[in-house]
Amino acid sequence: MSEMREKIATVDDRRKLADAVRGAQIAAADRGDVVVDMKEADLARIEILAHDLKPVFDDVPVDDLQWDFAISKGQQPRLWIDPTSHVMMGRDRRTYRFVRDTRLGRIVVAESPEVQPISDAVTNYIAERIVERQRLMEGERISLRPAVIYQEDKNSGPTEHASVRPPAVSSTTTRRSRSVVSELITVLTWFVIGGLAGAGALLAFFWDRLSPYF
């Protein structure tokens, strides 16, 4: 009789555990559905902003490769402007946040629940970056490659003849040449002084013998 009761109790415990596991699975599925719904809602809002900015993206020069203009559909959807800036949704899932990563950390460029203010902020940011790039391109450019002279070949056309590199004048060589000249001048000066001093000494030593001739 006692064995029968223990078996019934064990079966009841297993049923309770199975019911608990089934309940946990249902709750996890419900939470997953909520997360999926939130992600889809964030993605929909990001796509609305991207659609509003599409004319701006189309006006950017094709040869300007500093921009991304892409949507990442990860756990938190983002609209990437360039490798350091993007737009994402805030914690309330309704506020757009235009952020930028800098050396000092992440800064919020603009934040608003409306699309238009964020669209204007992104447009101004793109315009500023384009102007900065134009200023850099208009500055003086110094080529880091050696100049190449092409010799005209009557049969096969222009062919590469030789590479011309500007002569590099070493400051060390210049200092050495100046030092050699200075030392040479110093030696000649002391040589002349020594010669004059020797001549004076000889004249004083033989003065008694030479005085009759003066």
Topology:
Layout: H1 2-59, E1 70-72, E2 78-82, E3 85-89, E4 96-102, E5 105-112, H2 115-138, E6 147-153, E7 157-164, H3 171-205, H4 207-210
Helix pairs in contact: 1-2
Keywords: Membrane, Transmembrane, Transmembrane helix
Q: What do you see in this structure?
A:
- The mean pLDDT is 76.
- The protein is α+β, with helices and mostly antiparallel strands.
- The radius of gyration is 44 Å and the shape is elongated.
- The protein has a domain at 1-138.
- The protein has helices at 2-59, 115-138, 171-205, 207-210; strands at residues 70-72, 78-82, 85-89, 96-102, 105-112, 147-153, 157-164.
- The strands form two sheets. The protein has a five-stranded antiparallel β-sheet with strand order 1-2-3-4-5. It has a two-stranded antiparallel sheet with strand order 6-7.
What keywords describe this structure?
single chain; 214 residues; five-stranded antiparallel sheet; two-stranded antiparallel ribbon; 4 helices; transmembrane helix
Low-confidence stretches: none
Structural class: alpha+beta
The strand line-up of the biggest sheet is 1-2-3-4-5
Query: Which descriptor suits the 3D outline?
Result: elongated
Percent helix among the residues? Answer: 55-70%
Order of helices and strands: HEEEEEHEEHH
Amino-to-carboxy terminus distance: 161 Å
Q: Summarize the main sheet.
A: 5 strands, antiparallel
The average pLDDT is 76
Assembly context of the chains: single chain
**Percent strand:** 15-25%
Radius of gyration: 44 Å
Number of helices: 4
Total strands: 7
